[in-house]
Specification:
heterodimer; A: 217 residues; Rossmann fold; seven-stranded mixed beta sheet; globular; B: 917 residues; mainly alpha; Leucine-rich Repeat Variant; two-stranded antiparallel sheet; 1% strand; flat
Chain lengths: 217, 917
């Protein structure tokens, strides 16, 4: 399956907020209520479509425990997008967002798109963080915000796709240097055939990327 | 160097007599590094230290190590200074090539530990990797590699916790200088060893693509050792790492392997040693992706891609090409085996593969002929068997195809698989007999088993004989049959008869078979081999019992049970067949589908048999338990207490066996642990030696005086070290597998325990109820006694109020109290026994799957019983405390007491107790 772009994502946030469940819902379209703690990082991939373009998402799911923080930090540099997740029924996961955001901003490229996700929206009765609070936090820090439910799949597709749209927009605007793979973006093999010629971003030079990126896909 | 020394010490040191010791010189140089204000001066001193760091390794290490790091920090902008310092540290870590003493070798570890004590040191070194100055970067990469060799786990952890540590190392792959890139690959091959976190980050940093790019730049299999190093890193990243396996596949990396195997194979092709090594390494990498120990999801997805991108096709070409080195041939057969194993599409493709010869021959047939060929080396024959078994694994179409070639209706004119197998199984070569027996067993499934009964052989002097008949005839009538052949035939019969009543009947109709088997079990065991054969015979009788529909004229299930319990003795029967699974051969075979054997002597079982055995051994144990057998329809619930007890005792026996197996595993594990530690130590020594040697070999470029003997020593030492590393690696893997196995075992134990605890509640409820009843009646008696005692006490108290206490009366009461508390104690003990026995039952293993609903009911009943028991306990404790109170009162005996109040309390308790029940 060929694609125009490949984006690398990571999912971050406190332990137990449903990161692995979001990934599983997005890649496998299923919900697994009982899940072992993620040890280190698990991996999933899926193809999506934006503006008629095939985009491959490679998603690394991280471990939320404090002891894995230094490991999680190693993933920021190479990621184009990050889903920062908290649990709307556990206020402390919301309160830790600042520390996650600091970490992400410090170790990632400045262009990484961060999407704030309030997960477990199906548990509205147990809600501990208001929608407005999440929104306010997102606005304050320049993040896109959504509430999702990995259980009912509500907004899960949208969360991943909207993040991709943001990345894509940044490419179009020439913000991302797509020749540098360390940004977590890779041109697909399609670009080699000149298929993507019409939509090239002004400042990016895909020709240059072909040698490095197209070699082995 | 002499000039430097001169400049340091001036003319006064020129005289040979007053030449200062190495330590003194090093000390002076280090003073200069730390105190001189002139950069040139510090640089000269560092250069001098570097110059001395080989010859005076110990002195430089002891005096300068912290100073060298300090010097790097102070003069970090001066590439030369930093370079000298890093090289000095590198030399200090590496043991001198001439030294073979252990303490010299251990010195490097000591220094490495010293360096690690300050976590900033490693951060500093990782920072140096970002320097573009070659004279800094290059020795730093080598220093990190050297540190990893000495203290792998600690360095791995340190790199992992250092921000962007791995990213910095990964960036080296894009270094302009090839030598840095190559040394970085070597560094990665150490860094990624058995640390899944590092493996994942390295993969995230696009390692697969970047390494593959290097491999293709180097010319794929024709490349230098760099190609091999790259593949080694990729193997590390994939081995047992499911996340990376998924990523590798998702990133279309499997397809990128095709060019590696796509070269013109011909007999004139020159296979250099490096090419052989490269191809072998790449085959191992393919196997990392489809190893049976990987997750099923990853394996089948990879298998699918490997077929689609024609990788399987290329691999099959290797199998039949001429001029391919044996090692590559063996490994490509093993690889094909795992690429087709359990994947029907790939198995069907493999079915169509033909040899490039004229006329072309079926690939499968070629594999079988190679397997039964005595002249072929053992690894090749074993690979052929593994490939054939993998082709048939879960492949009903393939299985029936093979069986069909044996059937009389078969009109094949050319040589068929069936013919090869039949020729092999009744041939003279014991390994061929065993291998063909395993191959036939692999072709059997529930629908093929009755089919195989139709197979007729024309034997000289006997006319037409069925295959089954011939197998048992060989067993019974050939006392000189080699043990391996006997085992092969018995395993085949076990597989064949399992779940096939027609085959059991046919086997039992031959009156000589059972006497032969019982004879073998009763045979006095002289050695492991006898024990294994006895165990297999017992298993076979057990299978005849389990899958016996009673249609055999000679042996009904009852007759067989009679034989087992009366003639053989049930205990020794059970023992002989359960011991089978604790033999080293069995354990070895049960580890993985591929047979790992260095010599024929290590072979007795294959993996499928170990799976089969575990299944049937449970069934046999159950069949031997009359209570379970007769009540099989009634959900296995024993109706009479007698049967109940029998089953309990057997369960207990079975649990003991299981725990003994676990114990054996533990012992084995311990032994292997010890061996590994020994080997690791040895290996570390050798590795250290090698390190030193590596340094020396670089040194020898600049100092060409090295003699040949030293080089030879170096080579042999390196080889030894390498083989030890391999041994260590394989042992480590083995240990991992052992651990996993133990873990599985424990999980199984736990699951069964859980099941049993649920179930035992059902079995024990009646008895528990009895016991509780008993306890209650005891308690009631106790209460009566207490009431009586209370009355007496009351009387006595009334009496004592008016008269001085009558000591004899008091003594009597006290005696009674003592008796009561004794009785209490007895009851408590009884309860404890009860609890212990309960725990015993809980710990036993058995599987009565269909009981769950009933079990749940019974569990809740049991819970209420437990509650009652608790109530009783509370009551007993209450009694106890009251008795104590009374005793105290008696002692003080002038405290008036309203005894009736207490009596009321007790009555209440008693009442509520009754209501609960």
């Amino acid at each position: 399956m060929s694609y125009s772009y490949l984006f690398k994502y990571i999912i971050i946030g406190d332990t137990g907020v449903g990161k692995s469940c979001l990934l599983l819902q997005f890649t496998d379209k299923r919900f697994q209520p009982v899940h072992d703690l993620t040890i280190g990082v698990e991996f999933g991939a899926r193809m999506i479509n934006i503006d008629g373009k095939q985009i491959k998402l490679q998603i690394w799911d991280t471990a939320g425990q404090e002891s894995f923080r230094s490991i999680t930090r190693s993933y920021y540099r190479g990621a184009a997008g990050a889903l920062l997740v908290y649990d709307i029924t556990r206020r402390e996961t919301f309160e830790h967002l600042t520390s996650w955001l600091d970490d992400a901003r410090q170790h990632s490229s400045s262009n990484m798109v961060i999407m704030l996700i309030g997960n477990k929206s199906d548990l509205d009765a147990k809600r501990d963080v208001k929608f407005e609070e999440g929104l306010a936090f997102a606005q304050e820090h320049g993040l896109v915000f959504m509430e999702t439910s990995a259980k009912t799949a509500a907004n899960v597709e949208e969360a991943f796709i909207n993040t991709a749209k943001e990345v894509y927009k940044k490419i179009q605007d020439g913000v991302f240097d797509i020749t540098n793979e360390a940004n977590g973006i890779k041109l697909g093999p399609q670009h080699q055939g000149g298929g993507g010629g019409g939509q090239r971003a002004a400042s990016a030079d895909p020709n240059k990327a072909q040698g490095g990126g197209g070699g082995c896909c | 160097m002499a000039s430097i020394l001169k400049s340091v010490f001036g003319p006064s040191t020129a005289g040979a007599e007053s030449k200062p010791s190495g330590a003194e010189t090093v000390q002076k140089l280090s003073n200069r590094v730390s105190s001189s204000v002139n950069l040139d001066d510090r640089r000269d001193a560092l250069r001098a230290i570097k110059g001395m760091s080989r010859q005076y390794r110990r002195e430089v290490g002891n005096i300068c190590l912290p100073l060298l790091f300090q010097a790097i920090r102070n003069d970090i902008s001066d590439g030369e200074c930093v370079g000298y310092a890093v090289e000095s540290i590198l030399n200090v870590l590496s043991s001198d090539e001439g030294e073979e003493r252990t303490d010299e070798l251990l010195l490097g570890v000591d220094y490495a530990e010293q360096i690690l004590k300050d976590p900033e040191n490693l951060v500093l070194l990782l920072r140096l990797l970002e320097e573009f100055d070659f004279q800094v970067r290059h020795p730093t990469v080598r220093l990190l590699t050297s540190l990893l060799c000495l203290k792998m786990v600690d360095i791995q952890e340190a790199v992992l916790s250092s921000p962007m540590g791995i990213s910095k190392i990964m960036d080296l792959l894009s270094a302009k200088q090839e030598v840095i890139r190559n040394d970085a690959i070597l560094l990665l091959s150490y860094l990624t060893r058995s640390n899944s976190q590092i493996q994942k980050i390295v993969a995230f940093e696009s390692a697969f693509e970047r390494l593959m790019l290097i491999i293709s730049d180097e010319g794929y299999s024709d490349g230098s050792i760099i190609v091999e190093d790259c593949i080694t890193v990729m193997q590390n990243l994939l081995r047992g790492n499911s996340s990376n396996q998924a990523f590798y596949r998702e990133a279309n990396q499997v397809q990128s392997l095709v060019p590696f195997f796509d070269f013109k194979l011909s007999s004139s092709l020159k296979w250099s040693n490096q090419k052989t090594s490269n191809v072998l390494a790449m085959l191992l990498l393919v196997r990392c992706l489809v190893a049976p120990s990987n997750s099923q999801q990853n394996v089948s997805a990879c298998q699918k891609v490997m077929h689609q991108c024609r990788l399987l096709e290329f691999l099959c070409m290797f199998m039949f090409a001429s001029g391919v080195p044996t090692a590559v041939l063996v490994e490509s057969i093993n690889t094909v085996a795992e690429v087709v194993r359990g994947n029907f599409v790939n198995q069907q493709f493999f079915d169509t593969v033909e040899t490039p010869s004229t006329p072309p021959r079926s690939g499968i047939l070629t594999i079988l002929m190679c397997m039964v060929n005595e002249k072929q080396p053992l690894p090749l024959r074993l690979a052929a068997l593994y490939c054939f078994q993998s082709y048939l694994y879960k492949n009903e179409v393939g299985q029936s195809k093979v069986i069909n070639t044996l059937l009389p209706s078969s009109t094949e004119t050319t040589v068929s698989a069936g013919q090869v197998l039949c020729a092999g199984i009744f041939g003279n070569d014991s390994l061929s007999i065993w291998m063909t027996a395993m191959s036939l067993a692999a072709a059997l499934n529930s629908s093929q088993k009755p089919q195989l009964l139709r197979v007729q052989l024309s034997m000289q002097g006997k006319g037409q004989v069925t295959l089954l008949q011939q197998c048992s005839d060989v067993l019974v009538n050939m006392p000189d049959l080699k043990p391996l052949s006997r085992v092969g035939l018995l395993v085949l019969l076990c597989t064949w008869l399992t779940d096939c009543t027609a085959a059991v009947t046919s086997f039992l109709d031959n009156p000589v078979n059972i006497p032969y088997l019982t004879g073998m079990i009763e045979h006095h065991y002289n050695n492991d081999t006898d024990q294994i054969i006895g165990g297999l015979c017992a298993t076979l009788i057990g299978i005849c019992l389990v899958y016996n529909d009673g249609s055999s004229s000679g042996y009904s299930p009852e007759t067989l049970r009679e034989i087992i319990t009366r003639r053989i003795n049930q205990d020794s029967f059970t023992q002989s067949f359960t011991q089978l699974s604790s033999t080293e051969f069995f354990i070895q075979a049960s580890k993985q589908p591929q047979i790992q054997a260095g010599s024929v002597n290590q072979i007795f079982f294959d993996y499928p048999f170990t799976v089969l055995f575990r299944q049937v051994s449970n069934a046999i144990q159950r069949a031997l338990d009359p209570s379970i057998e007769t009540n099989g329809g009634a959900e296995g619930v024993p109706t009479s207490s007698q049967n109940h007890l029998i089953s309990q005792s057997q369960l207990s026996a079975s649990f003991e066996e299981h725990s003994s197996v676990v114990q054996q595993y533990k012992d084995l594990l311990q032994e292997q642990d010890r061996q590994i530690i020994e080997l690791r130590n040895k290996c570390q020594e050798l590795e250290r030696g090698r390190n030193g040697n590596d340094t020396q070999s670089l040194l020898s470029n600049s100092a060409p005086g090295t003699n040949g003997e030293l080089n030879k020593e170096l080579v042999s030492l390196r080889e030894a070290s390498l083989s030890h590393s391999r041994l260590q690696e394989s042992l480590r893997q083995e240990l991992g597998q052992k651990n996993a196995e133990l873990e599985r075992m424990r999980e199984k134990c736990e699951a069964l325990q859980l099941q049993l605890s649920q179930q035992s509640s059902s079995e024990d409820v009646s008895r528990l109820r009895q016991e509780v009843e008993q306890l209650r009646s005891d308690n009631e008696a106790l209460l009566t006694e207490k009431t009586y005692l209370d009355t007496q006490l009351n009387q006595q108290l009334t009496l004592s109020a008016i008269a001085p206490p009558i000591s004899s009366n008091e003594g009597e009461t006290q005696e009674k109290l003592r008796q009561l508390s004794e009785k209490n104690l007895g009851l408590e003990n009884e309860r404890k026994n009860l609890l212990t026995r309960l725990a015993e039952y809980e710990a036993r293993l058995t599987d009565y799957g269909s009981l769950e609903v009933k079990i749940k009911e019974l569990v809740s009943k049991n819970e209420s019983l437990e509650k009652e028991q608790e109530d009783l306990l509370v009551l007993l404790a209450d009694n106890d405390s009251k008795l104590r109170k009374y005793r105290e009162m008696l002692k003080n005996n002038n405290i008036p007491l309203s005894a009736s109040d207490d009596d009321d309390d007790d009555d209440d308790d008693d009442d509520s107790d009754d209501e609960d029940i």
